[in-house]
Amino acid sequence: MNLQNLRAFLKVAEFEHITRASEELHLTQPAVTKIMQSLEQEVQLSLIERQGRRIVLTHAGRVLQSYARQMFALEREMEDALASLRDVKRGEIKLAANTTAGVYLLPSIVARFSALYPEIALNISILNSQDIVEHILDWSLDFGIVEGDVSHLPEGLHIRFFMRDALILVVSTAHRWCGLQSIRPEELGNGELVVRERGSGVRDMLERDLASRNIPLKPLLTLTDNEAIKQMVINGVGAAVVSLMTVQRELVNGDLVQVPVTGMEIHPELSFIQRSDKQLSRAAQVFSSFFVLTSE
User: Fold this and answer.
1) What keywords sit in the KW lines (predicted)?
2) Residue 168, burial from CB neighbour count under 10 angstroms (0-12, 13-18, 19+)
3) What is the CA angle 26-27-28, rounded to 5?
4) Could you report the per-residue pLDDT of 103-116, keeping only the tens digit for each?
């Protein structure tokens, strides 16, 4: 099977659109269409189907996508391994972090690493914890930083705990809860909270804690960004349970106020994860060792 054709197939799968894929590949649309037809003839299976203007993968297409990702991950590992024999300071690392770690923890670590190894390219994505695990398992990433309970994560991952956070309830100075000594957990479930999307480690831990008390979470508003949640709370839209790491500045400035919740203490763990069976490039090995030393 032609590797260039597989690369084109992965772009079509990524963009779900022939024209966008052809622009990214610097090929004509008919050329990409012909590649897709050639692949389907080769495997004797339909790989894509049209849903309006969008293209989606068939089951066979998803199977091919999974194996193609593994093949190109191995190709990159091979290139990095050979490059490391020439120069240990070269290479590329693909890393993803959850929003909390990616915005409030990772920048200082990346700055120090890049100062020591300026020719190692860091390709960093900010994703929720669930998506990070999926991309680690499908070979798209070298490493991931996730927040929350890792006991339910799938097998095949090497997991290294490195830090404990705390989830706290915050409100604006104008909120009716401001100034209270504490509130009951039951008050959090009734359309009071601005929360992260499903798949977020913070939301998962909050829902688990409330569920253990038979309290269903009924969000006031759902957002995918911590900064947006903070601004909503500061402007009086609602309250939020957030990582302490993300609101330290606002607590000091008085923009937000912490309100204790009776009997509720949630201390999520931040963990560094990778596939157990992934052969790391020399550059990735260097970053892994550096991260462990830096975060201890």
Assistant:
1) DNA-binding, Transcription, Transcription regulation
2) buried
3) 130
4) 889 999 999 999 98
Structure tokens at 104: 């409030």
Q: What is the phi/psi pair of residue 237, to 5°?
A: -70, -40
Give the residue among 132, 136, 142, 130 at the shortest CA–CA distance from 204: 130
**Structure confidence by residue, pLDDT tens digits, 33-58:** 999 899 989 989 999 888 877 889 99
Contact assessment for residue 40 and residue 47, using Cβ atoms and an 8 Å cutoff: yes
Set out the domains of the chain in order of their start, with CATH numbers.
3-65 (1.10.10.10), 88-164+270-295 (3.40.190.10), 167-266 (3.40.190.290)
pTM of the full predicted structure? 0.63
Contact assessment for residue 154 and residue 133, using Cβ atoms and an 8 Å cutoff: yes
- For the segment 225-250, what is each residue's pLDDT rounded down to a tens digit? 889 999 999 999 999 999 999 999 99
